[in-house]
């Protein structure tokens, strides 16, 4: 949902490329050249990404000596975003010019050889960082980038390596988590709570943080309807409320899936207010035995579980998830 919003914003601000003929966009062998570009060109499961590479001319970049490490979204990743054909990819060419370089890392980086650790920062050629988790437990051996699983890893090319991801990576547009919260209209009441509590400056610097931001509907459910109501509340009370929804570290949903205790499928997260929350895995309805989501609950107060309404919004100093309930209520 957040990546869709990213595309929609770019499309609204930039003209859509029109009048492209099939001859100009067809990513056939004449565009493959060599190296990583040739590997992508020969992989049917990356046919939609070929269009993005050719249209943005990054196929030329990936034919150079490099070396580079490519994180290539699969066809299914593009289709999940509503791009079912090469023509659909071409129509958002300006968006692709922003998206594609975030999938290209400098150097030959074997993801399977990275240390077993969460969210290791690696530099993309657009100047931003991606965060790679390499983890092994009794039911999974996983490499995950920005919370997105890497399904095929370390395929060799003459100028680097090719990996296939299950989703499209979104470059971050917010320098910090407070800006990410303020940029989402559905989180305006929680943003007001951050400001009124006096904590905005804290979350604009430092970190990293993981924020579980209650949606406006969560505040509405306890009788808080407007930002004016928030600004009339006790800042000390709001400090405790805000900190109950923030934890130290950068954690994507898939990180919790990997961290969770195997028998209970749960994980205890410690919030900055001092409360403990229980994160419970949610089964993937399409893949028996796997998990695709989480719930979160304040284990101290015994409140009901909050479900995720939005997830994995990356900012410069952390990640924001939006949730359906206030954890202290």
From TrEMBL:
SUPFAM superfamilies listed in its UniProt record: FAS1 domain
UniProt cross-references to SMART domains, sorted A to Z: FAS1
Domain of life from the UniProt record: Bacteria
Domain FAS1: 33-169, 174-327
Alphabetical list of PANTHER family matching this protein: FI19380P1 (PTHR10900:SF77), PERIOSTIN-RELATED (PTHR10900)
InterPro entries: Adhesion/Biosynth-related (IPR050904), FAS1_dom_sf (IPR036378), FAS1_domain (IPR000782)
Stretches assigned to coiled coil: none
Name of this protein: FAS1 domain-containing protein
